């Protein structure tokens, strides 16, 4: 009888410990990727691009420090959000990334798929300068640091599928668009790089 009671108490203790551990793990915050123009992460997930490493299974996870361009991921690591497991996203691959065709100066609808929407500060869109170095990993000096489109959310929670319409800058040839989704109540943002051609 005494042995059965000890086993029962041990079971209660293990159950309480398991409950404590499961409730102390932080909840998952926002995650997402751009589908228009298709991001490098999404191309990898689709299998359109091979040899992508881990990002092919989690295109929604390019999460790094917020505050771009003043802070955030280091230059040369913007597409991977500074995460070494996603470093393949920073490789220009000699211009082999597929591009989305855009019309210079025209209106375009940018789209995100959010697998875990979260309280949001804003979405911002940046584009490379004319004459940027297409052979080098993306840096701040290659980008126009004033976003050409900003969509404020003021802490609101976006839908799982969200679209933002705005006018793209006048450009010719191959460029990159960096989309930044800033989370309102964490220290992070999500970074998505898309290759485009005008």
Write the topology of this structure.
Elements: H1 2-24, E1 31-36, H2 40-46, E2 63-65, E3 100-101, E4 107-116, E5 120-127, E6 149-152, E7 161-167, E8 174-183, E9 188-197
Parallel strand pairs: 3-9
Antiparallel strand pairs: 1-4, 2-9, 4-7, 5-6, 5-8, 8-9
CATH architecture: Distorted Sandwich
Mean pLDDT score: 89
CATH-defined topology: Coagulation Factor XIII, Chain A, domain 1
Q: N-to-C terminal Cα separation, in Å?
A: 80 Å
- Strand fraction equals 25-35%
Quaternary organisation of the protein chains = single chain
Q: Give unreliable regions as ranges.
A: 4-28
Largest sheet, in brief, is: 6 strands, mixed
CATH superfamily: chitin-binding protein cbp21
Protein name: Lytic polysaccharide monooxygenase
Pfam family, one: LPMO_10
Signal peptide: 1-27
Organism: Kribbella sancticallisti
Task: Give an account of the 3D structure.
- The chain is of the alpha+beta class and 198 residues long.
- It has one domain: chitin-binding protein cbp21 (Coagulation Factor XIII, Chain A, domain 1, Distorted Sandwich).
- The protein is 15% helix and 30% strand.
- It is built from two helices and nine strands, in the order H-E-H-E-E-E-E-E-E-E-E.
- The strands form two sheets. Strands 2, 3, 5, 6, 8 and 9 form a six-stranded mixed β-sheet that branches.
- The longest helix has 23 residues, at 2-24.
- The model is unreliable at 4-28 (pLDDT under 50).
């Amino acid at each position: 009888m005494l042995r059965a009671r000890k086993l029962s108490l041990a079971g209660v203790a293990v159950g309480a410990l398991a409950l404590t551990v499961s409730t102390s793990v932080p909840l998952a915050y926002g995650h997402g990727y751009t589908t228009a123009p298709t991001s490098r992460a999404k191309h990898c997930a689709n299998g359109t691009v091979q040899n992508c490493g881990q990002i092919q299974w989690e295109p929604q996870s390019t999460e790094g420090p917020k505050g771009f361009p003043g802070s955030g991921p280091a230059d040369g690591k913007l597409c991977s959000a500074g995460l070494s497991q996603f470093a393949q996203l920073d490789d220009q691959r000699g211009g082999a990334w597929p591009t989305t065709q855009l019309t210079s100066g025209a209106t375009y609808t940018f789209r995100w798929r959010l697998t875990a929407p979260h309280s949001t500060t804003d979405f911002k869109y940046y584009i490379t300068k004319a004459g940027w170095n297409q052979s080098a990993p993306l840096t701040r000096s290659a980008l126009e640091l004033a976003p050409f489109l900003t969509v404020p959310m003021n802490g609101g929670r976006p839908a799982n599928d969200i679209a933002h319409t705005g006018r793209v800058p006048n450009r010719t040839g191959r460029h990159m668009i960096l989309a930044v989704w800033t989370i309102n109540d964490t220290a992070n943002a999500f970074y998505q790089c898309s290759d485009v051609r005008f």
